[in-house]
Amino acid sequence: MSAAAKCFAARGIHQTSMQEICDTAAISAGALYRYFESKEAIIVALADEERAGNAELIAHLAAADDIVDGLCEALPEIIAVLGNEQYGRLAVEIGAEATRNPVIADVFGRNESELRGALVEALERGQKRGTVDPALDVQATVFLIQALFDGIPGRSIFAEDVPPRQVAETLERFLRKALRGA
Amino acid sequence: MSAAAKCFAARGIHQTSMQEICDTAAISAGALYRYFESKEAIIVALADEERAGNAELIAHLAAADDIVDGLCEALPEIIAVLGNEQYGRLAVEIGAEATRNPVIADVFGRNESELRGALVEALERGQKRGTVDPALDVQATVFLIQALFDGIPGRSIFAEDVPPRQVAETLERFLRKALRGA
Question: Can you give the pTM of this predicted structure?
Answer without folding.
Answer: 0.88
